[in-house]
Amino acid sequence: MNLYFLIKTLHILSSVVLVGTGFGTAFYLFFTNRTRSVDAIAIVARLVVRADWWFTTPAVIFQPLSGLWLAHTDGWAWQTPWLMASVALYALTGLCWLPVVWLQIRLAKMATAASAQGEALPARYWQYARIWEALGYPAFVAMIGVYFLMVIKPNWYA
């Protein structure tokens, strides 16, 4: 196996980890929040933060590095419309993801404290949870767009 195919394989696998972990953790926290079980929410929120640090963050870093290297190695011009659109969508995802990370850390801390004290979750938890959820939708749709562009590589010049 040559270097190009090794990097391409790792790029594809890291994209699966990125989107899969993001969707999976969002799914579990979203539905655990609906139970209103403070203890369950505290556990899931802590695990969501951990998954972001262990899996999502390395993939977030590797994706643009490997993607741009692959595009350059393949001979794609940086001005290629599908490549520029992919980078823009990835940037949009990042602009959503950074506050989501901050929110998830706060959600986990609030839930852990409420669980330890046997209290209900504060109103701020639910405010942050709504913002966290609202940021997740455009980020997920943008990543689906990136997948589409990476696979199809549309010829918008025709």
Overview of the structural elements:
The chain has 158 residues and is mainly α. The chain has one domain (3-152). Helices cover 87% and strands 0% of the residues. It is built from four helices and no strands. It has helices at residues 3-35, 38-74, 81-117, 123-152. Helix 1 runs antiparallel to helix 4 (123-152), helix 2 (38-74) packs antiparallel against helix 3 (81-117) and helix 3 (81-117) runs antiparallel to helix 4 (123-152). The longest helix has 37 residues, at 38-74. It is elongated. It holds the Pfam family DUF2269. The chain crosses the membrane at residues 12-31, 82-103, 134-152. InterPro entries: DUF2269_transmembrane (IPR018729).
Q: What is the strand tally?
A: 0
- Helix/strand class: mainly alpha
Q: Strand-residue fraction?
A: under 5%
Tell me the count of domains.
1
Identify the overall geometry. Answer: elongated
Concise synopsis of the structure shown:
The protein is an all-alpha fold and 158 residues long. The protein has helices at 3-35, 38-74, 81-117, 123-152. The chain has one domain.
List keywords for this structure.
single chain; 158 residues; mainly alpha; 4 helices; 87% helix; elongated
Write the layout of secondary structure elements.
Elements lengths: L2 H33 L2 H37 L6 H37 L5 H30 L6
Helix pairs in contact: 1-2, 1-4, 2-3, 3-4
